[in-house]
Amino acid sequence: MSAIKAMVEDAASSAKAGAEKAKATAGEKVEKVTTRDPMKKREAEERKEDRKLEIESDERVEKAGRGPEKTVTHTADE
Q1: How far apart are CA 78 and CA 64, in angstroms?
Q2: What distance in Å separates the CA atoms of residue 56 and residue 42, rounded to the nearest whole number?
Q3: pLDDT tier at 27 (50, 70, 90 boundaries)?
Q4: GO BP, one example (predicted)?
Q5: Backbone angles phi, psi at 71, to 5 degrees
Q6: How far is CA 45 from the centre of its chain?
Q7: Backbone angles phi, psi at 39, to 5 degrees
Q8: I want to staple 40 with a disulfide (CB 3.0 to 4.6 A). Which of 14, 35, 54, 75 is the partner?
């Protein structure tokens, strides 16, 4: 049961990370469209990449915390 729970939690954290990445990308695109300054466009792109890396790192840390729960052992009776 705990293995299933870990899989569900992994899927939820992946979905959450995907949503956060989408928000970062959308925000960067809006900022790029609304400004004419090339430096601000470059800064927006760098912030988006930094935010995506941070989100991915948070996701890996969250999944690593549940690592031992994922192991499932089967016996001959099963």
Answers
A1: 28
A2: 21
A3: confident
A4: embryo development ending in seed dormancy
A5: -75, 130
A6: 18
A7: -70, -40
A8: 35
Are 44 and 33 a contacting pair, CB within 8 Å? no
Instruction: Please say whether the beta carbons of 28 and 45 come within 8 A.
Output: yes
User: Are the CB atoms for 10 and 66 separated by under 8 Å?
Assistant: yes
pLDDT of residue 41: 78
Q: C-alpha dihedral over 62, 46, 32, 29, to 10 degrees?
A: -20
Does 59 score more than 80 pLDDT?
yes
7's tokens: 């899989």
pLDDT-derived band at 78, boundaries 50, 70, 90: low
Residue with tokens 């990370």: 17
Residue 71: C-alpha distances to residues 37, 40, 65 (Å) = 52, 47, 13
Q: How is residue 69 written in tokens?
A: 């729960």
